[in-house]
Structures are given as C-alpha cells and as structure tokens.
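Suppose you are handed only these lines of text.
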Amino acid sequence: MDKLVSLAKRRGYIFQSSEIYGGTGSVWDYGPLGVELKKNIKDRWWNAMVRMRDDIKGLDAAILMHPRVWEASGHVAGFTDPLVDCKQCKKRFRADDPRIKGTPGTPDVVCPACGNRGTLSAARLFNLMFKTFMGPVEDTASVVYLRPETAQGIYVNFLNVQQSTRQKVPFGIAQIGKAFRNEITPGNFIFRTREFEQMEMQFFVKPGTDMEWFEYWKGERMKWHHSLGLADDRLMFHQHTKEELAHYARAAFDVQFDFGGTLGFQEIEGVHNRGDFDLTQHQTFSSKKLEYFDQPNNERYLPYVIETSVGCDRTTLAVLVNGYREETVPGEDEGRVVLGIHPSLAPIKAAIFPLTKKDGQPEMARRIEKELRAKFPVDYDETGSIGKRYRRQDEVGTPFAVTIDGDSTNDGTVTVRDRDTLKQDRIAADRLAGFLAEKLGV
Ligand code: GAP
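From them, the structure of the protein bound to glycyl-adenosine-5'-phosphate can be written out as follows.
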C-alpha cells in the first residue's frame, strides 16, 4: 500500500487533500490521472446499470435533503458508532477497537495510544453524520446533514421517477454521488474516507419476488466486478450474519475484494434486500402515499427494494491494488513497475513517442497524436531514452505505446508495443486508430 500511495502521488493519481496545510484527515483529491480512472469506472457502472437497460432510470438528487429524511431513514437515531475518548492524550477510538482490553471507563483499562491506565471514558454513541446549518441562522430549526448515503435521494423520488417515465414494477433507479461520514477510524488510503462517492441502484419489486431479484442482482454485480479485470481469486461474497445486518436489511451480501496486507478481504459493494422499510418510513414521516398502483391487477402496494451499493473510491483502490506489479523484463537489468489495469479503465490509452527529435519524426508523431486524441486520451512524450519513456507509461497503466522511428517517415509504418506482453507490432500509421480502437474495445 505504501508503494501505491507514493506512486499515486508522484504520477498524479491521488493527492492528500489540502496537503500544503498539513492535510485534512482522511480526505483525498484525485489528480489528472486519478480523475480519469475514477470517471472510467463511473462510466462503466452507468453504462451497465442505466444505458444498457430499459428497466433502470438515472437520477442526480441533491446532497442536502430535508432533515426529516434522516429521521425517517433511521440515521438520526441509529447511524452511530460507539466511541471512547482518552482524557489524557485526547485520542478517540471505536469502543470495539481490538487494542482496547477490558471495558472502557473502568480503572484498569489502558489507552492504546498513550499507554495511560484508567484514562479511557466509557463508550458513548457518536453519530457519523456531518451536521451543518441551512440559511443565516445557526439554530436547531436550520440543521441539515450532508447525506451519508445516496439511497435516500432515490426513495424520496420513487414516485417522481416512476410516474414521469411510466415504469412498471419491477424497475430500478440509479445514481452516482458524494456521501459523507464522520468516520471515527478512517484510513488505509482511499479505503475508508470521510468524503467518498457511491454508485447506488435501488430496484423496486413486488413483495414475494424479492429474494429472486436479490439473487439476480448478486450475480449481476459480481459479473461487473469481474468485467473490471479484478482477479477471480481476489473476489468473494460475504453473507451478513444476523448481528451484522443493518437496521433496514432483511438479507445482505457484500462483494469483498482481497486488498492484501493487513486489510485482506474487505467489502467493496453491498447488495441488500431492504424490504419495504424505506418507503414505509418515508410514507409515515411525510404523510404522503408512496404506493405503486399495479393497473392490470388493480392493486396498490409498497414495493420491496433490492439495493446494490458500491463505493467508487474503494473500487478505484481495488483496481489499483489488483493492477500493481513489479517485475523483471527479459534481457534488461532494470525491472519495471506496471499498473496492469484493464485497458477500458486506463486514463491514457496510448502514448506516442518519436524515437528522435529530428528527421520529421516529431511532426509525424504530432499528426498521429492529433488523430488519436479525437478518439481517446493519449500522451505525447519525446524526452529521455525510449526505455525510460516505456517505464513512465507502464507505471501509470498506459496499455499501448506507439513509436515513430526512421522507417516510419519513409514507409508510413509505426510500432505498437503492448504493455503486458511487451509484443511489438509493426503496422501502417493510417490503420493505427482502427487497430487501437479494436484492442481497446472503444
Ligand atoms: N446505501 C447503503 C450503504 O450506504 P454501505 O455498506 O454503508 O451501504 C456502501 O456503503 C458502499 O459504500 C461500501 O461497500 C463502500 O464501498 C462504500 N463506503 C462506505 N463507507 C465508506 C467510506 N467511509 N469510505 C469509502 N467508501 C465507503
């Protein structure tokens, strides 16, 4: 992870937020390459979940919602973690931190940070929602929350979307957006942060058909993770036990990814059967009927919800961890670092290198760059040895490198090097765009 964090910073994938001020706790900024990678992940999700289906519609609900939403959803009362403070060093811990031996608040318990005995407070519940005020008056009447999940924006718009698009149950609503949680123990780079992005889909089904749809969505979502190139043996399902189930869930499975090191297998996506919990709550709290009218059967009911909720940042981390490798190159002394990410996710699809800065090579390379740039992101590089230029692109995951050499200006051919196999193909420059587009699947 340390090597990945350092590469991410050095090459413009991910920076610490407000770094020049010493950083903001567990908040990260995506640099030029990171923003492209994350956008590619979001596009793949949006295409699979919305564009390619006629039974799911998109939504972009606001982050700030009516405060009653969070009472209805159960977040005001129940979105809490048990927290313990040290009176001596002022550090805070989750009460279930494995380093705390014994019951916090009793005299013999030792603080895991400063080592003092009897300084830990008893556990108290800490709400993870960020609170702020709407309008100029900072009083209890103007409290609003930064949403801790995007899902509620979908529930409150259930009838708006259903009626405006004339969808029939079963159908889904999908959205991508920021969520905020004042996590007590964030960390592991972008794995657990206080500001993150979710890609959530709520699928509304007739009660009684919910477990069938739950199984369907489990399968679909696992297929999607495989389609990103995540290794088979690094993905698995974890079924929630009764104790693990969230307050809204009747059944839940996590898609877990093996991050290696101390993290090991961890959740990247949750698939939940939420029953009619959310729509019932919003119907009660808003006093507005949210029932679906099934015209052919002349029946009214509150649909059940199957939710798929995947973290965009966590998936980005999984893609980076999955792709990172260090290897030796046959016939070369120097090894290389490769970010073997799926070509569809790579921020730069091809790098263009003139072998030398003379003999018309840069001009031809610039013409090729211009032609390719109209189709996908490319990078032009004429500095340093060709080996160094290959290494620079391998390290950021560019799947193809195109070299323009002495022969190119005579016969109009170029070489295309494949990042993973290192195989070089000599092809006509005027066939290059088609050749790369086919390989990239764009
Ligand atoms: N609406 C259901 C829901 O929010 P969740 O399991 O709390 O469920 C879903 O979150 C996904 O959001 C997780 O699988 C994870 O990928 C991502 N996520 C949750 N908290 C996060 C955090 N603090 N930092 C980064 N990603 C987070």
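What can we learn from it? The domain at 2-65+148-320 is CATH 3.30.930.10 (BirA Bifunctional Protein; domain 2). The pocket of glycyl-adenosine-5'-phosphate is lined by residues 149, 151, 181, 183, 192-193, 196, 198, 200, 267-270, 307, 309-311, 313-314 (CB under 6 Å).
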